Amino acid sequence: MWALRLPSWKSEPELVEVPVPVPGPGEVLVQVGAAGACHSDLHLMHDFEAGALPWEPPFTLGHENAGWVHTLGEGVRGLEPGQPVAVVGAWGCGQCQRCLGGYETLCARPDLAPVPGGGGGLGMDGGMAEYLLVPAARHLVPLPDGLDPVSAAPLTDAALTPYHAVRRSQHKLGPVSTAVVIGVGGLGHLAVQVLKATTAARIVAVDPRESSRDSALRGGADLAVAPGPDAVQEIRDFTGGLGADLVLDHVGSDDTLALAAAVSRSLGDLTLVGIGGGTLPVSFFSLPYETSVQTTYWGNRHELVEVLDLGARGLLTAETTLYTLHDAAQAYLDLTHGTVTGRAVVVPTDDYRA
Known about the structure:
This protein is an alpha/beta fold. It folds into two domains: 2-157 and 299-347, Alpha-Beta Complex (Quinone Oxidoreductase, Chain A, domain 1), CATH 3.90.180.10; 161-295, NAD(P)-binding Rossmann-like Domain (Rossmann fold), CATH 3.40.50. 24% of the residues lie in helices and 25% in strands. Helix 4 (160-168) packs across helix 5. It is globular and about 60 Å long. It starts with a strand and ends in a 7-residue tail after the last strand.
């Protein structure tokens, strides 16, 4: 089969031919229907060096995956060949307290996990291929009626991550509250939809691209502004001078974090989602009183079930730009240049040769 693999740190991915995996006991082989290309993959290609993470290349990219059950390993129950499924991205040990509570993203025994702190497309082979070997059936969620793998794949991260972030602040998002989403690209445009579908908060979107601001307004934002010298005042005016109860920063640069701090409200949450490498100085007087600053990482299986249900009901819809596996490397180039509309999704076809 063909697979898009990262051969080493600080390298470009390569489309190569590899054997089709054979599932062992407890494993499941999934025929890939779609795999999302995530901006965080660019950091794997360009920013990390040996020793920075607890795993090393080479591995197949793609941690947003959905498809159909193809082959069951010995002992697997509850799944059938041909069944459409989404893949839970983080693969923990399945035995520690965190994993048993559904938080395999925060596995407390990475030494027992298939790969420490990672999963398919993150240290182990992911879904930018014709087939994906999943190490345990618990990492698969059957797709609800009305949701196909192409629609589901980007929801497994691009919707799940903001969904998890919003749920952490759900109690602060009533009818008189405001949520600000900074960066409304691949994840951010779905964050707007998550807020619209699950809260009564007013929603402000911030993005330099007019097309992304328009997308946010279509997705339910009440106001869309461009970053710049007037952005803070626009948001403050919109909130009656109070500021935002929740700020979701999907970029994470110095500039966006400064904006997030400037529009936050006392008792609000400033949640860092993006990994842009920026820093936020925190001191007693640098933020409104009792503002909480928090990071967030992906989401859990229970939340993915809820996200997929929202998708099947038409409440979450990823805007996508489709690529074949043959053109998957181009998807990452387009991500680098900021020319992708919504989420880049790779859909395998029957022929990957030029």
